[in-house]
Amino acid sequence: MPFEHRRSVVALALIASFMVFVDSTIVNVTLAQLATHLHASRAELEWSLNAYTLSFAALMLGAGAIADTLGAKRAFLTGLVVFTASSAVCAAAGSMLMLNLARLVQGAGSALLLPSALVLATASATDEHSRHRLVSWWAAAGGAGMAAGPLLGGGLVALANWRAVFAVNVVIGIPAAIWALRSMPSVVRRARRLDLAGMGTATAFIGGLVFALIEAPTRGWLDPAVLAAAALTVAGLVAFVLVERSVSKPLLPLKLYGDRGFAAAAAQGTLLNFAFYGVLFTMSLLLQQGRGLSPLVTGLLFLPLTGLISIANLCSAPLTRRLGRPAVLAIGQAVLTLALLGLAWASTSSAVWPMVLALVPIGFSSGLLVPTMTAQSIAAVEPDLHGAASAAFNTSRQIGGAIGVATFGPLLGTAHNLTTGFVTCTVVAAAASIAGLCVTAVAALPRRTPIPVPSAACDS
């Protein structure tokens, strides 16, 4: 591949990673305007975040197989076009229903875009060292997007309105698609069967679960739609397990969960995202609706949380080499627990700066935990299962984030008493972090080895 093409492919992969992850945090600062301009209810605001997460998580399990089947270039372009077009629909939405349906499609585009971008970038590497460096850059671009989301969103809302947050994807996406068509080479396609039944049943399970959690507080748990969603959750889970046991190339090899290290990592990732994204959602509403702060100021206040994640990511590997993975996990979860309790206490003050101080250890500890958990999920299984383990771990995290937003929304309460509700939310988040710490302790216990039973001596 010519040097100019290699450089273009890497740049496009970094842009794609940034775009996908910036959309996981940028919408948080638009919530107050969405509530005012589109008359959004709390449940509809939760869907504006979870619709994206839902389709992203459901399709992420099969995204690698889709990229192999379509070819990485075709999957990348398809994902980019879907993401850009759905962003345009979001920007033009006249109702929350239209916005949330477009967010659902946007998440599907992200699920296609992200893994194919990584495949194309690493295919341009000339040796193993450059491949590792490209993966690090790709991950750093995603971290930068996640960190920049609230600040970028706040600035766009201040300059224009909430529509600009989605329109900016169109401004970036169209030139990127043209650039990709002209300079991105094709990567050899690999024959691989798609587990469509697995993808369908996984979507049914995740979608039913998220719908029930979001809609039940408003509709009631005995509402027919909520009961139907609960039934779909159970049926989807049972069907998914049966399908994955019967196919030769499952999306999610169930034997992964037979390994204590991987199962622990998946549980830890779910609990971490449950706490992190739940707090991010509720704090955005507290600052804007409860404290009357502008989206731009809110985005600036989030910088200690999101900005320190990328810095802590770089510190994770050296600390793990020095202290060991279980110690880094335990320290990170302990610090996160104390910081969340500190945030609960700080939110009762009329001043904002105590909350900002509490965000510093939350951001740093979260940044330490994610790469350490990721490394644990991969190290626990055989090399031929690394791809499946990575997809399963990231899907678990996405589900945790969706459940966190769905759970914390009702706990936050009404606009007249957001502070009390936020304290409840942060205490629940701290409890989730304690649960993660318990999982770490159990996973670190030495494995019991069976004691051989000596054969009985025969009587002579």
From TrEMBL:
It is found in: Cell membrane. Residues 9-448 form the Major facilitator superfamily (MFS) profile domain. It holds the Pfam family MFS_1. It is a multi-pass membrane protein. Its main location: membrane. It comes from the Bacteria. This is MFS transporter. It comes from Kribbella jiaozuonensis.
